[in-house]
Amino acid sequence: MAGFVLRRFLGMIPILFLITIGVFLVMQVLPGDPARMILGQEATPESLAAVRERLGLNQPLHMQYLSWLGNVMTGDLGRSMVDNSPVSRAILSALPVTLQVTGLALVIGLLIGVPAGVIAATSPGRLGDGVATFIGLTCISLPGFWVAILMLYVFSLWLGWLPSSGFVRFTDDPWQSFLHSLMPAIALGLRPAGIFMRLVRSSMVEVMKSDYVRTARAKGLAGHAVILRHGLRTSLIPLVTILSVEFAALLGNVVVIDTIFGLPGFGRLIFNSVLRLDLTMMQSLVLIFALAVIAINLLTDIVYFILDPRIKER
Amino acid sequence: MTDATGNLSHSPGTPVLEVRDLVTEFTTDEGRLRAVDGVSFALHAGQTLAVVGESGSGKSVTSLSVMGLLPARIGRIASGSIRLDGRELTGLPERAMRRVRGDDIAMIFQEPMTSLTPVYTVGDQIAEAILTHRDIGRRAARARAIELLDQVGIPEPALRARAYPHQLSGGMRQRVMIAIALSCDPRVLIADEPTTGLDVTIQAQILDLLRRLQRDSGMAILFITHDLGVVAEIADRVLVMYAGRKVEEAGVEALFATPRMPYTVGLMGSTPRPGASARPGAARLRAIRGNIPSPRKLPPGCAFHPRCDHMHEGVCTTALPPLEDAGDGHLVRCARWRDIAGVPS
Ligand SMILES: Nc1ncnc2c1ncn2[C@@H]1O[C@H](COP(=O)(O)OP(=O)(O)OP(=O)(O)O)[C@@H](O)[C@H]1O
Ligand SMILES: [Mg+2]
To answer: Which UniProt keywords are given for this protein, alphabetically ordered (chain B) (predicted)?
Structure first.
């Protein structure tokens, strides 16, 4: 196990390097002079030169890359071009918010999607299948922002059950924190719920016809043991792949959700940095997203390894 | 077990498994079809009954009916009786049937490569069967699983118990399936083409194993196969099925010596001589001209008549011939068996 994880991890290092180079270069080719952005249009040539000197913009490209990479590796992502505050601080403050909301969204997706998929798969063509499939399809087709606004209207404005905006940190008040992230997570999680449902349904319908499920029945196992231990357990393997893809997709949706619910998460950072052309912030966010996707892939491999013994041979 | 005439006698006492007039139907989109139509047989302890017939003749459906494993909502036992040690199994609620399945009646299948769940060790899969039916601890079940692996001839059983199915060969996996089937000392083992798809030496080993296990435990075996070479090796009695019906049944020697039903003769024509062990491929039953009819539209009269060389218009084409005793419990369903055999009626 440790060897497998280490191998996978080492295998990612070249990819990590390519990503840092890519991120760095993209920022280089973007139009705009960082020094002028910082100082504004009225800056004197002398002060511009001074800022360029301070930022190392006169150095050859590879030197700039290396010094940037060195800083990134020590956790220094540079300073915001807007207010000169450290980017890493802003990211560290937004990270838990986004992780909590997206994590909860995935949990909600799984809690709805997996049971619905199992019900649909074990009653193909019958009422349970119809209802579950309908719910799944609804989840996929409803736009997240629309659900978000509808929920705001019903649960915050009308019923007053849930806070409409803002965030409370988990460490400050877990319950309030949960309440604040609930609606954003539902809005984000419905689509994955529908996708998980359809995936579990389709893979489990096949598995339930398989020879080994017949063997499990022939052993005299109870229906639920056949379904859960032999049917669902092997159907989980394709779910892991989709889970990682959907998580990456969730990260893309946080801009809208953070804006609607006023969450101080990654979505807000992205929105603001684009609005204000904060290049350092954008660069760091792109880097973090790429790292997140890589980390998720590594995690997926590890979960695969745990779920499917056949992988060990490869 | 054989009497003076060389035929297998009917064993005394009640049979372990007795199937009488079994009718199994499927409701499909295109309507209802009768996959098994009035099949009866008796299976005695320590005896092996082989069921042969072409693909689609209803062999598997018969065995799934006995196991209570017909596809839910589609398949049902329309009538007939299945008795295990005199106890009626048809109409038993699922909970009660579950206690029979895997405990009193166990089953192994044709596809050893795919019949084990890929994500659990074989030891766990055997232990699971034991834990389902016996009130023992996990540890004891594991130990018993290793014992069983040893019994079915798997070397280094303690090590193999921790292997996953994909780490074992087809023959090994079929041994594991047999270990699962034997885990609760069943009275009846149903083997649905357990050696099809395995290579010949492995086939022979599996047959040897089944014979040895039967000798030790006295279980009855219902052995389904395409392969008359295998029948000759393992069966005491043979039941020949055609289009969901029993068309001939006899002791194995009698059947091979004097097959009565032209269909059985046709099957043998396509198989190596009895006694000679089967060669791969050669033993498939394909040589009879024409195809087995769909159970949806069976020919009137004897279902085999369109393919039969002895067919007589009127005699074979109108009424379904009854199952007649040709002597010594040799049953045959053919209107013309006396003519064909030269026996005066
Ligand atoms: N699930 C099902 N739904 C509808 N019809 C079925 C189903 N299973 C079997 N049948 C029908 O029952 C008939 C008998 O099938 P069965 O599987 O018992 O044949 P078999 O003798 O075991 O053949 P094989 O040698 O190919 O295994 C076939 O005509 C088939 O069409
Ligand atoms: Mg079959």
So the answer is: ATP-binding, Cell membrane, Membrane, Nucleotide-binding, Transport
* Same domain for B10 and B32: yes
User: Could you tell me the pTM of the whole model?
Assistant: 0.83
Nearest CA residue ID for atom 1, ligand 1: B71
DSSP structure class, residue B293: P
**Collapsing DSSP states into helix, strand and coil, what is residue A65?**
helix
Please state, in angstroms and as integers, the Cα–Cα distance from residue A163 to each residue in A154, A186, B221, following that order. Answer: 11, 14, 68
Q: Is B225 in the pocket of ligand 1 (CB under 6 A)?
A: no
Q: In this complex, do B102 and A219 lie within 8 Å of one another by their Cβ atoms?
A: yes
Whether residue B32 is found in the same domain as residue B159: no
pLDDT digits (tens, 9 = 90+) for A49-104: 887 777 777 788 888 888 888 888 888 888 887 788 888 899 999 999 999 999 99
In a domain, B334, yes or no: no
Residue closest via CA to ligand 1's atom 12 equals B35
Query: Is residue B27 located within the same domain as residue B99?
Result: yes
Query: A234 contacts in B (CB within 8 Å)?
Result: 117-119
CA B65/CA A220 separation, integer angstroms: 14
Residue B305 touches partner A, C-beta closer than 8 Å? no
Based on the fold, state whether residues B96 and B206 are members of the same structural domain: yes
Q: Are residues A27 and A149 in the same domain?
A: no
Residue B221: per-residue pLDDT: 96
Check whether residue B179 and residue B245 sit in a common domain.
no
Å between A227 CA and nearest CA of chain B: 12
Same domain for B122 and B34: no
Ligand 1: distance of its center to the CA of B295 in Å?
Answer: 9
Indicate the angle between helix axes B138-151 and B122-133, nearest 10 degrees: 120
In this complex, is the C-beta atom of B27 within 8 Å of any C-beta atom belonging to chain A?
no
Q: What is the pLDDT of residue B177?
A: 93
Scanning chain B, the segments in alpha helix (DSSP H) are 59-67, 94-100, 122-133, 138-151, 157-160, 170-182, 200-217, 228-234, 252-257, 262-269, 337-341
Minimal CA separation from A224 to chain B, in Å: 12
Q: Do B114 and A212 touch (CB under 8 A)?
A: yes
- State which residues form the domain around B127: 112-185
Find the domain containing A68 and state its range. Answer: 2-73
Q: Which of B261, B272, B249 is nearest to B307 (CA)?
A: B261
Q: Do A310 and B166 touch (CB under 8 A)?
A: yes
Stretches in chain B below the pLDDT threshold 70: 1-12, 270-287, 345
Q: How many domains does chain B have?
A: 2
Say if residues A221 and A233 touch (Cβ distance below 8 Å): no
Nearest to B109 among A214, A222, A234 (CB): A214
Determine the Cα–Cα distance for residues A106 and A138; give it in Å rounded to an integer.
Answer: 17
Say yes or no: ipTM exceeds 0.95. Answer: no
Q: Output the residue whose Cα is nearest ligand 1's atom 7.
A: B26
pLDDT in tens, B231-242: 999 999 999 999
Question: Which has more pLDDT, A281 or A314?
Answer: A281
* B55 touches ligand 1 (CB under 6 Å): yes
Write out chain A residues lying below 8 Å of B121, CB-based.
Answer: 309
Residue A3 has pLDDT above 90, yes or no: no
Is a pLDDT exceeding 60 seen at residue A213?
yes
Q: Does B101 touch chain A (CB under 8 A)?
A: yes
pLDDT of residue B271: 56
pLDDT digits (tens, 9 = 90+) for B26-60: 998 888 899 999 999 999 999 999 999 988 999 99
Mark whether A67 and A118 lie in a shared domain.
Answer: no
Scanning the structure block, which residue is given the tokens 């039953």? B285
